[in-house]
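Training component of the fellowship. As part of building independent skills, the fellow (R.M.) carried out the full modelling exercise for a liganded target. The chosen ligand was shikimate-3-phosphate. The inputs are recorded below so that the supervisory panel can assess the work.
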Amino acid sequence: MTGNSNDRRKYGLIGHPLKHSLSPYIHDHIMRKCGIKGSYKLLDIPTDEFDDHVLKVTECLDGYNITIPYKERIIPYLNKLEGHAGKYSTVNTVIEAKGFSSDIEALLQSEIPYKGNNILILGAGGAARAVLAAALISGCRSAGVWSRRTEQSAGLIEEFRRLHPNAIIFQEDTINTDTKSTNLYSCDKAFYDVIVNATPAGMWPECGIPPVSRELILNSVYVYDTIYNPLATRLVLCARSYGIRAESGLDMLVRQAVVSQKIWDPKADLSLFSPLKLQQRVKYMMFNLFPIKIVLTGFMGCGKTVTGKALASVLKIPFTDLDEVIIERTGMTITDFFAENGEETFRDIESENLKEVMRKEGSIVIATGGGTLMRDQNVETVRSNRGFIFFLDAEPEISIKRTENDTLRPLLKNRTSEEIRELYSQRLPAYIRASDHIIDSSGSVTDSVNRIKAALGLSDALHT
Ligand code: S3P
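Fellow's submitted model of the complex:
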């Protein structure tokens, strides 16, 4: 590497593919805030061209990051490996032909409670390698590694056992690939304090597949998903729904960027910038970069429409009410439609319109009808179109009070409070089954909006 004669630093990211990378935005932001003059570019090298081009591409840079699939492949081109990079054979930051792992450093700085805990690591690729290293360096009690590619996980375990002869590292084999359920892997036998997802399961655009079953999540105390797009994966939403602390991979992405900047310029004063504020900015940007559908479900009167409108306005994305779409399409009120065509026909129209709304481009908040997600096929429509389901659960008494004197809901007509409560109880299991996250919507609309924002990892105080 030659370096630059002028003051402007030239940095970049080598990898393939790089289309969706957030790194240029993150590094530009850090450099701007900290008064570092420089640029950060994406340098995509196809796998069959790596060996021919890597030296040429990197020679004019002052420093660079390296990502999948090249974190090991870069090593022969370097003169020296520093810190954890050498021991664990993984490099993601380079300066003057010296390789470092800011990934491991970032994972060590994260809030993952490794020490004394049993950690489950899902995956056996580059991310899993860094997580396993951080867990062992920090003194975890044990580390179970699970991967569908059992040979790869066996190899990783063998290598790490040599590096940490006294550590307890094992192949988790009670977890099965469960093709029947919506979870990729399912297990109700294993108990882990900490679960770290280092697989691509749940990554945008295939957000519908969470890596593990609810049972496994419920038995844990901390969940970390190395995926940062979408801003909250189904895994993270599920954990937060049950009060289990969970962090998205954006935490690691920002932390490793800061560590890289420090490696490239040890004198830089990085205290001038707030990683949390940057995370918030990026999370709000995600609605444009990686569009998702926030789908609200729950019993009549739980507040889907009012909460949906308020949430959409806060997130600055559009709002759609499925009932309103149906009213507009059919030219009839829901009550008249029920009276003329019956409930089954309404349900068919509802399913068709849900499909159309879900296929719209861009992020959107959708309030469904209280019965929409009673049909499994509609849940599937949501899942396969980057939809995340929030169940707004209000006490039936509150719903009854809110819908008193209502004439627009045919299912409330001529029903006693007892019967309405009964309908709620019948539907409750289906709402819970379908949901990615449950919030109590018995309070104010602002309360409900704040709970959904918290589940997504968004906080107003930090959004400037
Ligand atoms: C229904 C709920 C209504 C509407 C229709 C049927 C239901 O929507 O779709 O009257 O089956 O629960 P809201 O939940 O918005 O009231």
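The panel noted the following from the submitted structure. Confidence is low (pLDDT under 50) at residues 1-5, 179-183. The first strand starts at residue 9 and ends at 15.
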